[in-house]
Amino acid sequence: MTRFVQMSRRFLLGAAASGISLAFAGQAAAQARGPRDKLVVVIARGAMDGLSVTVPYGDPDYVALRGGLAIPASGEANGALALAEGFGLHPALTALHGLYGAGQLRFAPAVAIPARVRSHFDAQDVLENGGGGLRQQTDGWLNRALAASGGKGLSIGAQTPLILRGAAPTSSWAPGGVVRGEDRIASLLQDLYVEDPMLGNSLARGLETEAQAMMTGDGSTPRRNDVAGLGAAVARLMTGEAGADLVALSVDGWDTHARQNAQLVVRLGGLDQLIAGVRQGLGEDWARTIVIVATEFGRTAHANGTQGTDHGTASSLLLAGGALKAGGPIGDWPTLAPNRLFEDRDLAPTLDIRSVFKGVLRDHLGVDRAALDARVFPGSAAEAPPLDHLVRA
Question: Judging by beta carbons within 10 Å of its beta carbon (0-12, 13-18, 19+), is residue 69 exposed, middle or buried?
């Protein structure tokens, strides 16, 4: 059951700036029960290129595989921002790199959904339903986690995504202009034009120009893609006694079949600002928060003929938050050696993405392993959380 409330983002941002407390999606204030742990799940729709997000510049095969798409090593001009064990963040992710320095960012460099599909819509269904395959569940794993852990759920966008649909009641907020049908149409067009160098490049160039335009302005009014402001507005709906505890948010535009490098500078910069806005807006509640950034699948290890990449398999998953325990990479690195690529083209997965979700839900929200294996992710007992103690003591 979803309660839908639509407010203009200008009103919400103005209210946040002036210190007005916003009721959680029209619900009556809950009884005070002390500080509550928070979880934000960001779905990067369109297949985010993990090899550009957590850059494996220490892998000896990385540069040869990527060619002109390779991000320079840490310490070089426009190079990756150093992490650990030969990895670095894309140089647009400066706020996230600051979180890493504070012990508040971790990453899994080679995760994948349990089904090997290359369709965006099928893969997103598997990612969100939490089962072992396509359309195995009619509700979402985050809704089932909400039922198991208690608290309040909130989706950001015009429609509640599958991940948060189900029996547990949730609320929705649709900021004006953030979710657009054209974003999905653009993704379909990029697939359609992937074999056409002229049309593929022209479409990608247009998307890049549009995205850059939406990120600039004189600052006099909130812009449609003021992502830092959006993050702060989402945080506002998570604070106070009536604030949301589990939030689902989608970010489109990751289907980079052409002119990938230029597109990712804008997309990753926006993601970076979004999470920075959430952090700033949450204030002291950030210490009780974890943010997950996940995508339906990764992209090919090789560049294609239009300076982009095509649908792949494994990708990166990011964990951020003040509640996160400091540490290094999560899961094994399969390497990019030719004989280790999946189907001779993709980064091979070493970790089922549900394992990471389980670790967060167990350690952060207190959902017990039996419930995770049987109800939240049905039939997944073989997929254990990859680490113990993901959260700070």
Answer: buried
